[in-house]
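FORM 7B: Structural annotation worksheet

SECTION A. Query
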Amino acid sequence: MTDSEKVNVHISKLDAEIAPTISYLRKVILETDIEIAEQIKWNNPCFYFAGEIKAYNPKEYKREIIVFNTHKNRILLVFPSGAKVNDTTGFLEGTYADGRRLVTFKDLEDVKAKEEILKDIIKKWLSLVEK
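SECTION B. Predicted structure
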């Protein structure tokens, strides 16, 4: 199975209440830039920069943009290195020592209302990639 097929299978097993929202978020993320790819990592869909990048320590998570967390049917996006992004909107939540930031969505309406901000944050993250 391809990575995208694995993500399809994962989403198909989610609760019917959140699966459409997860599918919509997936589409938004992948459409933001052609160099974003997906896989299953940490038991959830993960989106990463698939283009050329300078050599780095893999423990720094310089490729990983967003990891979903759907535990207990919540819709949480984890930006493993989100602290790098200058977010003046308050969209990215939390200040963690490891540099991650979070975004929580209530439902599909909430995603659609914040879609442009999400795309902007992803583009800002991509602009910081050391190519």
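SECTION C. Observations
The helical segments are 3-12, 19-32, 108-127. The CA atoms of residues 26 and 34 lie 13 Å apart.

SECTION D. Sign-off
Analyst initials: ____
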